[in-house]
Design a protein that fits this description.
- With about 60 residues, the chain is an all-alpha fold.
- Helices cover about 90% and strands about 0% of the residues.
- The chain contains two helices and no strands.
- The longest helix is centred in the C-terminal third of the chain and has 29 residues.
């Protein structure tokens, strides 16, 4: 997969999960989605870096 696709997918999934959580707990969704997107981007970047280092070692 391409790097942008991995990061975008992780960001989208984290944002949707935090949106769902906010709606279930009757809280404002915007701050949760912003934090979820940020954390998702970090997770996506970490996955990309791990896969790069794994490919370089092989």
């Amino acid at each position: 997969m391409k790097e942008k696709t991995i990061v975008s997918t992780a960001t989208l999934l984290a944002s949707l999960l935090t949106y769902w959580y906010a709606k279930e707990t009757n809280k404002d969704a915007v701050p949760y989605m912003m934090m979820g997107g940020f954390i998702g981007a970090i997770i996506g970047e970490t996955i990309v870096e791990k896969s790069k280092s794994k490919n370089n070692n092989s």
